[in-house]
Amino acid sequence: MVSKIKFKSIISILCSKLTQFLSKKFLKGGSNFPGKIALKIDKDILKVIAKNYKVILVTGTNGKTTTTSMIYNVLKEQGLNVITNNTGANMFPGIVSSFISNFKFSDKNLKYAVIEVDEANVKFITEYINPEIITITNLFRDQLDRFGEVYTTLNKILEGINKVPNSKLLLNGDESLLGGLSLPNPILYYGFNDLENKNTTIEVNADAKFCKFCKAPYSYEFITYNHLGKFYCPNCGFKRADLKYAVNKVLETTSEGSKVIFNDATFTITQAGSYNIYNALCAYSIAKEFNISDDVIETSFLKQTSTFGRQEILNIEGKEVKIILVKNPAGYNQALDMLCLNKETFSAAFLLNDNYADGTDVSWIWDVDFEKLQKMPMNNIYISGKRLYDMAVRLKIANLNEENFIISENYDSLTKNIISSSSKKVYVLATYTAMINYRKHLHNKGYINKLW
Protein backbone atom coordinates (compact mmCIF):
# COMPACT_ATOMS: atom_id res chain seq x y z
CA MET A 1 0.00 0.00 0.00
CA VAL A 2 2.80 2.41 0.97
CA SER A 3 4.60 1.87 -2.33
CA LYS A 4 1.55 2.94 -4.28
CA ILE A 5 1.27 6.28 -2.47
CA LYS A 6 3.35 9.22 -3.59
CA PHE A 7 6.10 10.29 -1.23
CA LYS A 8 4.46 13.71 -0.89
CA SER A 9 1.23 12.05 0.28
CA ILE A 10 3.06 9.90 2.82
CA ILE A 11 4.74 12.98 4.31
CA SER A 12 1.36 14.76 4.32
CA ILE A 13 -0.30 11.93 6.26
CA LEU A 14 2.55 11.49 8.75
CA CYS A 15 2.83 15.22 9.51
CA SER A 16 -0.94 15.46 9.96
CA LYS A 17 -1.00 12.45 12.31
CA LEU A 18 1.81 13.97 14.39
CA THR A 19 -0.08 17.28 14.55
CA GLN A 20 -3.24 15.44 15.65
CA PHE A 21 -1.35 13.68 18.43
CA LEU A 22 0.18 16.92 19.71
CA SER A 23 -3.13 18.79 19.45
CA LYS A 24 -5.03 16.19 21.48
CA LYS A 25 -2.28 15.86 24.07
CA PHE A 26 -1.56 19.52 24.70
CA LEU A 27 -4.46 21.57 23.26
CA LYS A 28 -7.47 19.31 24.04
CA GLY A 29 -8.68 19.49 20.45
CA GLY A 30 -7.68 21.06 17.17
CA SER A 31 -9.73 19.13 14.63
CA ASN A 32 -9.11 21.46 11.66
CA PHE A 33 -5.42 22.29 11.95
CA PRO A 34 -4.05 18.78 11.18
CA GLY A 35 -6.05 18.84 7.93
CA LYS A 36 -4.61 22.21 7.03
CA ILE A 37 -1.10 20.80 7.53
CA ALA A 38 -1.93 17.81 5.29
CA LEU A 39 -3.40 20.00 2.54
CA LYS A 40 -0.44 22.36 2.66
CA ILE A 41 1.86 19.46 1.80
CA ASP A 42 -0.48 17.65 -0.63
CA LYS A 43 -3.56 19.49 -1.85
CA ASP A 44 -4.97 16.25 -3.35
CA ILE A 45 -4.55 14.15 -0.19
CA LEU A 46 -8.30 13.54 0.23
CA LYS A 47 -8.37 11.39 -2.91
CA VAL A 48 -5.71 9.14 -1.36
CA ILE A 49 -7.10 8.78 2.16
CA ALA A 50 -10.76 8.31 1.12
CA LYS A 51 -10.01 5.77 -1.62
CA ASN A 52 -11.47 2.65 0.04
CA TYR A 53 -14.61 4.23 1.47
CA LYS A 54 -18.26 4.28 0.50
CA VAL A 55 -19.07 7.83 1.49
CA ILE A 56 -22.37 9.32 2.66
CA LEU A 57 -22.34 13.13 2.72
CA VAL A 58 -24.78 14.94 5.00
CA THR A 59 -25.35 18.63 4.36
CA GLY A 60 -28.05 21.28 4.80
CA THR A 61 -28.72 24.10 7.25
CA ASN A 62 -30.09 22.40 10.37
CA GLY A 63 -29.70 18.89 11.74
CA LYS A 64 -26.43 17.86 10.07
CA THR A 65 -24.61 16.75 13.21
CA THR A 66 -27.49 14.79 14.73
CA THR A 67 -28.42 13.17 11.41
CA THR A 68 -24.79 12.22 10.78
CA SER A 69 -24.59 10.67 14.24
CA MET A 70 -27.81 8.70 13.73
CA ILE A 71 -26.70 7.33 10.34
CA TYR A 72 -23.28 6.43 11.74
CA ASN A 73 -24.82 4.59 14.70
CA VAL A 74 -27.24 2.61 12.51
CA LEU A 75 -24.43 1.47 10.19
CA LYS A 76 -22.30 0.58 13.21
CA GLU A 77 -25.20 -1.36 14.75
CA GLN A 78 -25.37 -3.30 11.47
CA GLY A 79 -21.75 -4.33 12.06
CA LEU A 80 -20.25 -2.28 9.24
CA ASN A 81 -16.78 -0.75 9.45
CA VAL A 82 -17.70 2.94 9.57
CA ILE A 83 -16.09 6.26 10.48
CA THR A 84 -17.47 9.77 10.91
CA ASN A 85 -16.36 13.31 11.73
CA ASN A 86 -18.14 13.29 15.08
CA THR A 87 -16.57 16.50 16.40
CA GLY A 88 -18.62 18.51 13.90
CA ALA A 89 -15.52 19.70 12.02
CA ASN A 90 -17.38 19.93 8.73
CA MET A 91 -15.11 22.21 6.69
CA PHE A 92 -12.67 20.81 4.12
CA PRO A 93 -9.62 20.70 6.48
CA GLY A 94 -11.67 19.13 9.29
CA ILE A 95 -12.95 16.39 6.98
CA VAL A 96 -9.40 15.68 5.78
CA SER A 97 -8.35 15.44 9.44
CA SER A 98 -11.09 12.91 10.12
CA PHE A 99 -10.02 10.62 7.26
CA ILE A 100 -6.35 10.89 8.21
CA SER A 101 -7.02 10.03 11.86
CA ASN A 102 -8.60 6.78 10.64
CA PHE A 103 -6.03 6.08 7.91
CA LYS A 104 -3.77 3.01 8.05
CA PHE A 105 -1.19 2.39 5.33
CA SER A 106 -1.77 -1.37 5.35
CA ASP A 107 -5.59 -1.30 5.33
CA LYS A 108 -7.21 -2.11 1.97
CA ASN A 109 -10.64 -3.18 3.31
CA LEU A 110 -13.83 -1.50 2.13
CA LYS A 111 -15.21 0.85 4.76
CA TYR A 112 -18.02 3.37 5.14
CA ALA A 113 -17.74 7.06 6.00
CA VAL A 114 -20.66 9.20 7.17
CA ILE A 115 -19.42 12.75 6.73
CA GLU A 116 -21.11 15.97 7.81
CA VAL A 117 -20.15 18.76 5.42
CA ASP A 118 -20.77 22.49 5.53
CA GLU A 119 -22.96 23.64 2.65
CA ALA A 120 -20.27 25.84 1.10
CA ASN A 121 -17.68 23.06 1.36
CA VAL A 122 -19.52 20.34 -0.58
CA LYS A 123 -17.75 21.41 -3.80
CA PHE A 124 -14.32 20.88 -2.21
CA ILE A 125 -15.20 17.35 -1.07
CA THR A 126 -16.78 16.21 -4.35
CA GLU A 127 -13.69 17.38 -6.18
CA TYR A 128 -11.99 14.26 -4.78
CA ILE A 129 -14.78 11.92 -3.61
CA ASN A 130 -17.69 10.33 -5.47
CA PRO A 131 -20.19 9.74 -2.65
CA GLU A 132 -22.59 6.80 -2.69
CA ILE A 133 -25.28 9.10 -1.30
CA ILE A 134 -25.59 12.82 -0.69
CA THR A 135 -28.41 13.84 1.62
CA ILE A 136 -29.69 17.39 2.20
CA THR A 137 -31.66 18.01 5.40
CA ASN A 138 -33.21 21.44 4.76
CA LEU A 139 -32.39 25.03 3.75
CA PHE A 140 -33.02 27.93 6.10
CA ARG A 141 -31.62 31.44 6.45
CA ASP A 142 -28.40 31.00 8.42
CA GLN A 143 -25.34 33.19 9.05
CA LEU A 144 -26.66 36.06 6.95
CA ASP A 145 -23.21 37.61 6.56
CA ARG A 146 -21.89 34.36 5.05
CA PHE A 147 -24.75 32.74 3.13
CA GLY A 148 -27.32 35.50 2.62
CA GLU A 149 -30.62 34.03 1.48
CA VAL A 150 -31.57 30.38 1.01
CA TYR A 151 -31.05 30.35 -2.77
CA THR A 152 -27.39 31.21 -2.20
CA THR A 153 -27.06 28.21 0.09
CA LEU A 154 -28.77 25.93 -2.44
CA ASN A 155 -26.47 27.11 -5.24
CA LYS A 156 -23.39 26.45 -3.11
CA ILE A 157 -24.52 22.86 -2.53
CA LEU A 158 -25.39 22.35 -6.20
CA GLU A 159 -21.87 23.46 -7.19
CA GLY A 160 -20.65 20.36 -5.41
CA ILE A 161 -23.37 18.01 -6.64
CA ASN A 162 -22.72 18.99 -10.25
CA LYS A 163 -19.26 17.40 -9.95
CA VAL A 164 -20.71 13.95 -9.06
CA PRO A 165 -23.61 13.19 -11.45
CA ASN A 166 -23.69 9.51 -10.45
CA SER A 167 -24.13 10.05 -6.71
CA LYS A 168 -27.58 9.20 -5.39
CA LEU A 169 -29.40 12.14 -3.82
CA LEU A 170 -31.66 11.57 -0.81
CA LEU A 171 -33.50 14.82 -0.22
CA ASN A 172 -36.05 16.24 2.18
CA GLY A 173 -39.16 16.31 -0.01
CA ASP A 174 -40.93 18.75 2.32
CA GLU A 175 -38.24 21.32 1.46
CA SER A 176 -39.67 23.10 -1.61
CA LEU A 177 -36.22 24.36 -2.64
CA LEU A 178 -35.11 20.76 -3.21
CA GLY A 179 -37.95 19.90 -5.58
CA GLY A 180 -37.80 20.16 -9.36
CA LEU A 181 -34.01 20.00 -9.58
CA SER A 182 -32.63 19.55 -13.12
CA LEU A 183 -29.90 17.06 -12.29
CA PRO A 184 -28.80 13.75 -13.87
CA ASN A 185 -28.41 12.15 -10.43
CA PRO A 186 -30.89 9.53 -9.19
CA ILE A 187 -33.09 11.38 -6.66
CA LEU A 188 -35.18 9.98 -3.78
CA TYR A 189 -37.30 11.95 -1.32
CA TYR A 190 -38.34 11.58 2.32
CA GLY A 191 -40.85 13.61 4.32
CA PHE A 192 -44.15 13.69 6.23
CA ASN A 193 -47.23 11.98 4.81
CA ASP A 194 -49.32 12.71 7.85
CA LEU A 195 -49.53 15.33 10.57
CA GLU A 196 -52.29 15.40 13.17
CA ASN A 197 -52.21 19.17 13.59
CA LYS A 198 -52.73 20.22 9.97
CA ASN A 199 -51.57 23.83 10.13
CA THR A 200 -51.81 25.38 6.65
CA THR A 201 -50.88 28.99 7.46
CA ILE A 202 -47.22 29.77 6.83
CA GLU A 203 -45.32 31.99 9.28
CA VAL A 204 -44.75 35.63 8.32
CA ASN A 205 -40.97 35.17 8.57
CA ALA A 206 -40.80 31.75 6.90
CA ASP A 207 -37.89 31.35 4.51
CA ALA A 208 -39.15 30.04 1.15
CA LYS A 209 -42.78 31.02 0.79
CA PHE A 210 -42.88 31.55 -2.97
CA CYS A 211 -42.80 29.11 -5.87
CA LYS A 212 -39.28 28.63 -7.20
CA PHE A 213 -40.64 28.58 -10.77
CA CYS A 214 -43.43 31.19 -11.02
CA LYS A 215 -42.94 33.11 -7.73
CA ALA A 216 -46.58 32.73 -6.66
CA PRO A 217 -47.20 32.00 -2.94
CA TYR A 218 -47.25 28.30 -2.04
CA SER A 219 -50.31 26.66 -0.56
CA TYR A 220 -50.02 23.77 1.89
CA GLU A 221 -51.98 20.68 2.79
CA PHE A 222 -50.01 20.94 6.05
CA ILE A 223 -46.89 22.63 7.43
CA THR A 224 -44.50 20.84 9.79
CA TYR A 225 -42.51 23.97 10.69
CA ASN A 226 -41.23 27.13 9.01
CA HIS A 227 -41.74 26.50 5.25
CA LEU A 228 -41.45 22.69 5.37
CA GLY A 229 -44.52 20.60 4.58
CA LYS A 230 -46.75 19.23 1.85
CA PHE A 231 -46.63 22.22 -0.49
CA TYR A 232 -48.09 22.97 -3.90
CA CYS A 233 -48.25 25.98 -6.17
CA PRO A 234 -51.86 26.83 -7.14
CA ASN A 235 -50.57 28.94 -10.04
CA CYS A 236 -48.17 26.71 -12.02
CA GLY A 237 -48.88 23.29 -10.50
CA PHE A 238 -45.43 22.62 -9.04
CA LYS A 239 -45.85 20.38 -6.00
CA ARG A 240 -44.00 18.15 -3.59
CA ALA A 241 -42.48 15.07 -5.18
CA ASP A 242 -43.61 11.55 -4.30
CA LEU A 243 -41.95 10.25 -1.14
CA LYS A 244 -40.13 6.92 -0.96
CA TYR A 245 -39.70 7.20 2.81
CA ALA A 246 -42.32 8.89 4.95
CA VAL A 247 -43.62 9.67 8.42
CA ASN A 248 -47.02 8.01 8.16
CA LYS A 249 -48.06 8.77 11.73
CA VAL A 250 -46.76 10.58 14.80
CA LEU A 251 -47.95 8.45 17.70
CA GLU A 252 -46.53 10.48 20.59
CA THR A 253 -44.53 13.65 21.23
CA THR A 254 -43.06 14.72 24.58
CA SER A 255 -40.25 16.97 25.80
CA GLU A 256 -38.07 13.84 25.88
CA GLY A 257 -38.73 12.35 22.42
CA SER A 258 -41.24 10.89 19.97
CA LYS A 259 -42.80 7.64 18.78
CA VAL A 260 -43.51 7.52 15.06
CA ILE A 261 -44.34 5.26 12.13
CA PHE A 262 -41.86 5.41 9.24
CA ASN A 263 -43.39 3.70 6.21
CA ASP A 264 -44.99 0.69 7.98
CA ALA A 265 -42.75 0.27 11.07
CA THR A 266 -42.80 1.96 14.50
CA PHE A 267 -39.70 3.70 15.87
CA THR A 268 -38.73 5.49 19.07
CA ILE A 269 -36.79 8.75 18.82
CA THR A 270 -34.95 9.69 22.00
CA GLN A 271 -34.61 13.39 21.11
CA ALA A 272 -37.53 15.79 21.13
CA GLY A 273 -38.93 18.01 18.39
CA SER A 274 -40.21 17.77 14.84
CA TYR A 275 -36.73 18.51 13.54
CA ASN A 276 -35.43 15.34 15.22
CA ILE A 277 -38.20 13.33 13.58
CA TYR A 278 -36.83 14.60 10.26
CA ASN A 279 -33.28 13.69 11.35
CA ALA A 280 -34.35 10.18 12.29
CA LEU A 281 -36.36 9.77 9.08
CA CYS A 282 -33.28 10.72 7.05
CA ALA A 283 -31.18 8.17 8.95
CA TYR A 284 -33.90 5.54 8.43
CA SER A 285 -33.99 6.30 4.71
CA ILE A 286 -30.22 5.91 4.37
CA ALA A 287 -30.37 2.65 6.31
CA LYS A 288 -33.08 1.23 4.06
CA GLU A 289 -30.99 2.15 1.00
CA PHE A 290 -28.34 -0.15 2.48
CA ASN A 291 -30.98 -2.85 3.17
CA ILE A 292 -30.71 -2.61 6.96
CA SER A 293 -33.63 -4.17 8.85
CA ASP A 294 -36.15 -2.21 10.90
CA ASP A 295 -35.09 -4.10 14.05
CA VAL A 296 -31.48 -2.94 13.69
CA ILE A 297 -32.63 0.64 13.06
CA GLU A 298 -34.91 0.65 16.13
CA THR A 299 -32.17 -0.82 18.32
CA SER A 300 -29.81 1.92 17.17
CA PHE A 301 -32.39 4.68 17.69
CA LEU A 302 -33.02 3.49 21.26
CA LYS A 303 -29.29 3.72 22.00
CA GLN A 304 -28.97 7.18 20.44
CA THR A 305 -27.68 9.71 22.92
CA SER A 306 -27.45 13.46 22.65
CA THR A 307 -23.96 14.89 22.62
CA PHE A 308 -21.99 18.02 21.84
CA GLY A 309 -24.73 20.57 22.53
CA ARG A 310 -27.51 18.81 20.62
CA GLN A 311 -29.93 18.33 23.53
CA GLU A 312 -26.96 17.13 25.56
CA ILE A 313 -28.00 16.43 29.17
CA LEU A 314 -25.61 17.20 32.05
CA ASN A 315 -25.85 16.90 35.80
CA ILE A 316 -24.57 20.09 37.40
CA GLU A 317 -24.78 19.84 41.18
CA GLY A 318 -28.12 18.03 40.98
CA LYS A 319 -29.58 20.20 38.20
CA GLU A 320 -30.60 18.54 34.93
CA VAL A 321 -29.07 20.88 32.37
CA LYS A 322 -29.93 20.36 28.71
CA ILE A 323 -27.70 22.22 26.21
CA ILE A 324 -29.35 23.04 22.89
CA LEU A 325 -27.53 24.57 19.93
CA VAL A 326 -29.55 27.35 18.28
CA LYS A 327 -28.26 29.22 15.26
CA ASN A 328 -31.15 30.56 13.15
CA PRO A 329 -34.86 31.41 13.48
CA ALA A 330 -36.15 28.06 12.19
CA GLY A 331 -34.06 25.98 14.57
CA TYR A 332 -34.61 28.34 17.50
CA ASN A 333 -38.38 28.19 17.08
CA GLN A 334 -38.23 24.39 17.08
CA ALA A 335 -36.22 24.49 20.30
CA LEU A 336 -38.80 26.79 21.86
CA ASP A 337 -41.58 24.45 20.75
CA MET A 338 -39.78 21.69 22.64
CA LEU A 339 -39.63 23.86 25.77
CA CYS A 340 -43.37 24.43 25.40
CA LEU A 341 -43.98 20.68 25.77
CA ASN A 342 -42.97 20.96 29.45
CA LYS A 343 -45.78 20.64 31.95
CA GLU A 344 -43.62 21.30 35.02
CA THR A 345 -41.63 24.40 35.94
CA PHE A 346 -38.18 24.95 34.45
CA SER A 347 -35.56 27.65 33.95
CA ALA A 348 -33.76 28.66 30.76
CA ALA A 349 -30.48 30.33 29.82
CA PHE A 350 -30.13 32.26 26.55
CA LEU A 351 -26.54 32.63 25.28
CA LEU A 352 -25.93 34.84 22.24
CA ASN A 353 -22.54 35.37 20.53
CA ASP A 354 -21.68 37.14 17.29
CA ASN A 355 -18.39 35.51 16.31
CA TYR A 356 -17.77 34.44 12.70
CA ALA A 357 -19.05 30.89 13.30
CA ASP A 358 -22.26 32.27 14.82
CA GLY A 359 -22.87 34.88 12.16
CA THR A 360 -21.84 38.44 12.96
CA ASP A 361 -25.33 39.78 12.19
CA VAL A 362 -27.58 38.97 15.18
CA SER A 363 -30.69 40.70 13.80
CA TRP A 364 -32.12 37.23 13.19
CA ILE A 365 -33.17 36.94 16.83
CA TRP A 366 -36.07 39.29 16.02
CA ASP A 367 -37.48 36.57 13.75
CA VAL A 368 -37.56 34.08 16.65
CA ASP A 369 -40.96 33.70 18.31
CA PHE A 370 -39.90 34.18 21.94
CA GLU A 371 -43.44 35.38 22.62
CA LYS A 372 -44.60 31.75 22.80
CA LEU A 373 -42.77 31.47 26.16
CA GLN A 374 -44.99 34.10 27.83
CA LYS A 375 -47.34 31.56 29.41
CA MET A 376 -44.74 28.89 30.20
CA PRO A 377 -43.91 28.06 33.85
CA MET A 378 -40.38 29.53 33.76
CA ASN A 379 -38.70 30.36 37.06
CA ASN A 380 -35.36 31.91 36.12
CA ILE A 381 -34.31 33.48 32.82
CA TYR A 382 -30.52 33.58 32.53
CA ILE A 383 -28.94 35.75 29.83
CA SER A 384 -25.29 35.55 28.79
CA GLY A 385 -22.87 35.71 25.85
CA LYS A 386 -21.11 38.50 23.97
CA ARG A 387 -24.42 40.03 22.88
CA LEU A 388 -26.31 39.40 26.10
CA TYR A 389 -27.88 42.85 26.16
CA ASP A 390 -29.29 42.39 22.64
CA MET A 391 -30.84 39.16 23.88
CA ALA A 392 -32.15 40.84 27.03
CA VAL A 393 -33.87 43.53 24.96
CA ARG A 394 -35.41 40.90 22.67
CA LEU A 395 -36.77 38.91 25.63
CA LYS A 396 -38.09 42.09 27.24
CA ILE A 397 -39.93 43.02 24.03
CA ALA A 398 -41.30 39.45 23.99
CA ASN A 399 -42.96 40.40 27.28
CA LEU A 400 -41.21 37.79 29.39
CA ASN A 401 -41.13 38.56 33.10
CA GLU A 402 -38.22 40.98 33.65
CA GLU A 403 -38.18 40.17 37.37
CA ASN A 404 -36.89 36.71 36.42
CA PHE A 405 -34.02 38.06 34.27
CA ILE A 406 -30.55 37.24 35.64
CA ILE A 407 -27.62 38.70 33.69
CA SER A 408 -24.42 36.63 33.68
CA GLU A 409 -21.44 38.40 32.13
CA ASN A 410 -19.18 35.34 32.35
CA TYR A 411 -19.56 31.58 32.47
CA ASP A 412 -18.53 31.29 36.12
CA SER A 413 -21.41 33.55 37.07
CA LEU A 414 -23.80 31.66 34.77
CA THR A 415 -22.87 28.28 36.25
CA LYS A 416 -23.25 29.54 39.82
CA ASN A 417 -26.65 30.96 38.93
CA ILE A 418 -27.75 27.67 37.37
CA ILE A 419 -26.64 25.76 40.46
CA SER A 420 -28.67 28.10 42.67
CA SER A 421 -31.72 27.92 40.37
CA SER A 422 -35.08 27.16 41.96
CA SER A 423 -35.73 24.70 39.08
CA LYS A 424 -34.46 21.14 38.83
CA LYS A 425 -34.48 21.38 35.02
CA VAL A 426 -32.55 24.11 33.17
CA TYR A 427 -32.34 24.54 29.40
CA VAL A 428 -29.30 26.29 27.93
CA LEU A 429 -30.00 27.65 24.44
CA ALA A 430 -26.72 28.79 22.94
CA THR A 431 -25.36 29.90 19.59
CA TYR A 432 -22.42 27.91 18.21
CA THR A 433 -19.37 29.54 19.79
CA ALA A 434 -21.28 30.18 23.01
CA MET A 435 -22.07 26.46 23.15
CA ILE A 436 -18.45 25.52 22.38
CA ASN A 437 -17.00 27.91 24.96
CA TYR A 438 -19.50 27.09 27.68
CA ARG A 439 -18.85 23.38 27.20
CA LYS A 440 -15.10 24.09 27.56
CA HIS A 441 -15.85 25.94 30.80
CA LEU A 442 -17.96 23.04 32.08
CA HIS A 443 -15.22 20.59 31.06
CA ASN A 444 -12.66 22.55 33.04
CA LYS A 445 -15.02 22.50 36.03
CA GLY A 446 -15.39 18.72 35.75
CA TYR A 447 -19.04 18.68 34.63
CA ILE A 448 -18.23 17.28 31.17
CA ASN A 449 -15.87 14.31 30.87
CA LYS A 450 -15.39 14.30 27.10
CA LEU A 451 -14.85 17.68 25.48
CA TRP A 452 -14.86 16.47 21.84
Automatic annotation (TrEMBL):
Give the Lipid II isoglutaminyl synthase (glutamine-hydrolyzing) subunit MurT C-terminal domain ranges: 325-435
Which controlled-vocabulary keywords does the entry list? ATP-binding, Cell shape, Cell wall biogenesis/degradation, Ligase, Metal-binding, Nucleotide-binding, Peptidoglycan synthesis, Zinc
Enzyme class, UniProt record, top EC level: ligase
Which Pfam families does the protein's record reference? Mur_ligase_M, MurT_C
This entry's Enzyme Commission designation comes to 6.3.5.13
Which residue positions are annotated as catalytic? 361
Pathway(s)? Cell wall biogenesis; peptidoglycan biosynthesis
SUPFAM superfamilies (alphabetical)? MurD-like peptide ligases, catalytic domain
Q: Which GO terms describe its molecular function?
A: ATP binding; carbon-nitrogen ligase activity on lipid II; tetrahydrofolylpolyglutamate synthase activity; zinc ion binding
Write out the residues that bind Zn(2+): 211, 214, 233, 236
InterPro entries on file? Folylpolyglutamate_synth_CS, Lipid_II_synth_MurT, Mur-like_cat_sf, Mur_ligase_cen, MurT_C
Extract one GO BP annotation from the record. Answer: cell wall organization
For this chain, the family text in UniProt reads: Belongs to the MurCDEF family. MurT subfamily.
Q: What does this protein do?
A: The lipid II isoglutaminyl synthase complex catalyzes the formation of alpha-D-isoglutamine in the cell wall lipid II stem peptide. The MurT subunit catalyzes the ATP-dependent amidation of D-glutamate residue of lipid II, converting it to an isoglutamine residue.
Q: What is this protein called?
A: Lipid II isoglutaminyl synthase (glutamine-hydrolyzing) subunit MurT
- This protein's species is Clostridium cavendishii DSM 21758
Q: Which gene encodes it?
A: murT
